[in-house]
Design brief:
The chain is 5% helix and 29% strand. It is mostly beta strands.
């Protein structure tokens, strides 16, 4: 397969990236209990649809409805800012999505123009021969081509890394948004972080000022430190004392008692938001992040404590965007909108395909050798003349074996093998051969 067709195959994957939410107009995400016939139920799980920030399914009087409904116009927490969509609550428990032309995704390529067209993200290749890298040009298919080393493509920085593939295509990987670079002033809720586009910027950061009060949760909100009441029952100072409504009480909080180890522990099941040690301590039956939680809150990038979500203790909500407090997303990924970025079903950031490549795990593929059946051609010996000696490597058996088998894009190196065809430049009819390149695609 030629280098140009290889570029085309790789970049066509990027150019076809589409967000599955909408294709223009507004779409309500969820079942509309108000407009459709009443649905009988015996428990909440019988109700169709999904719980969202805008409303929670509830079985009341054996009929499905929504509770915890957010006002119309409120934006869900952790909404992505690069999916060409703007989601708001409609006031009836539904999340409504509409196209947002000012929120295009970014594929980190100098050779594509990132656009939103009727709510669909598109990566449009720029003109052939447009400058890119260091003295390189775009190939017209969205790739910066012609590199022989990563340094031909650009300079690495704290928020960007360059690489050059074996086919001579530049790949740029941006460090995830919110990744800390430096935090020169502790407690100011600001830090030098990566913006997700390869730049270092000063943004809000979770480094709140600690006031030394164990009955206050220190958290950054809107760029300033706020001190909110810790969960009732949280131990404070020494002996059998615990926090009640944000104040260290002289005794254990109501519902808590002094045990032999001189710590306050629940005497009875506690309401959501109270301190807990195990599920039996809570009326909900769920103890998450040290507080009684409204549910098991077991999903990745979800938490139940104020310090992790910025919401009230006991409310299961997405963790703060750009964070990964429980390492749900591994070492290199972060949470956005309540999902690991590499598991959100979108081709965003510097991903090569959906949820793989770039900062994510490598993409899987298969070996293809000069197109269909390239390695199956009759084999001929390589001519022995020095002028043609470099055209063969006599690994035809390996090539036949590898074609069509699984491989890993960005990890496995392309391999070249011999196939039977006369190389005209050899000048010795019938005894030359040509090289076939096997690529992982």
């Amino acid at each position: 397969m030629s280098s140009t067709s290889t570029h085309r195959a790789l970049r066509s994957i990027l150019a076809s990236s589409i967000v599955a939410l909408v294709g223009g107009g507004c779409i309500a995400l969820g079942y509309d209990f108000d407009r459709k016939p009443p649905i009988p139920c015996s428990k909440d799980e019988d109700c169709p649809g999904e719980d969202t920030f805008c409303g929670t399914r509830k079985c009341e009087q054996n009929v499905c409805t929504f509770v915890n409904v957010q006002p119309a116009g409120v934006k869900p927490l952790g909404q992505p800012v690069d999916d060409c969509q703007d989601v708001t609550c409609d006031g009836a428990g539904h999340a409504v999505s509409k196209p947002a032309s000012d929120q295009p995704p970014k594929d980190a390529s100098e050779c594509t123009e990132d656009k939103c067209v009727d709510g669909t993200p598109l990566f449009v290749p720029v003109a052939d021969d447009a400058p890119c890298g260091k003295g390189l040009v775009c190939d017209g298919f969205g790739s910066c081509a012609g590199c022989t080393a990563a340094t031909d493509c650009g300079d690495d920085g704290p928020c960007v890394k360059w690489s050059c593939t074996a086919e001579g295509v530049c790949l740029r990987v941006n460090t995830p948004r919110g990744t800390l670079v430096t935090d020169t002033v502790k407690g100011d809720c600001l830090a030098e972080v990566c913006d997700g586009d390869g730049n270092v910027v000063t943004l809000s950061f979770q480094d709140p000022m600690d006031d030394g009060d164990s009955c206050k949760d220190d958290i950054c909100k809107d760029g300033v430190t706020v001190h909110e009441p810790a969960a009732n029952g949280t131990p404070c100072e020494t002996g059998c004392r615990s926090c009640t409504d944000g104040v260290c009480d002289m005794m254990c909080s109501p519902g808590f008692g002094c045990k032999d180890d001189m710590f306050c522990k629940p005497l009875e099941q506690q309401p959501n938001g109270s301190a807990c040690q195990e599920a039996i301590d809570c009326t909900s039956g769920s103890c998450v992040d040290g507080v009684c939680c409204e549910n098991e809150c077991s999903g990745k990038c979800m938490a139940c404590s104020n310090q992790k979500t910025g919401q009230a203790n006991g409310v299961c909500a997405p963790v703060i965007d750009g964070s990964n407090p429980d390492m749900d997303c591994g070492e290199s990924d972060v949470c956005f909108g309540g999902k690991c970025r590499c598991e959100n079903g979108l081709q965003d950031g510097a991903e090569l395909k959906v949820d793989c490549g770039g900062i994510c795990a490598p993409c899987g593929g298969k070996w293809v050798c000069n197109g269909s059946g390239g390695c199956k051609a009759p084999v001929q010996e390589c001519c022995a003349f020095i002028s043609c000696w470099g055209n063969c490597d006599n690994k035809t058996d390996d090539c036949t074996f590898i074609e069509g088998t699984a491989c890993t894009v960005e990890v496995d190196k392309p391999r070249s093998f011999t196939a039977g065809a006369v190389e005209a430049s050899c000048g010795w009819s019938g005894e030359a051969c040509r090289r076939i390149t096997c690529l992982c695609q």
